Amino acid sequence: MNIEKSILVVCSGSSGRFNVEDFYGAGYFIHHLLEGAVAEYSLTDAAQAALGFYQGNVHRGKKIIEESEVGRKLLTSIYKTDMSYVLQHGVISNLPYLHGKRMIVCEAKEKATLN
Q: Confidence class of residue 99 from pLDDT cuts 50, 70 and 90?
C-alpha cells in the first residue's frame, strides 16, 4: 500500500461502536469514487464489504437509516426534519481534502484538474 496515494474512509460510529449508517455511507462514497475514477483503485476487505452492502441496498437507504440505532434516536428528537436532508444523494458538490496540514474545499470537478 502506497500511503501517499491512499484514500482513507473513516466511519466514526457512535460511542466506540459500529454504525450501519456510516457503513452504508462509506459504500456510497466508494461507489461514486470508483464510478468516476480515472485511476484504478485496490480496495481493502472492509472497503469491498461497504461497497457490497451499499450496492445490495442502494434503494433501501431510507429504511436502513430509519431502522439504525442512531436513526431511531434522530427520528424521536429535534433532528427529525434533518433526516430528509441526510437521505438525499448527490446534493453536495464540494470536495474537502488535505493539502499538507490545511483543509481545502473546492468544487468536485475543480479537484479533478488540481492533480
A: confident
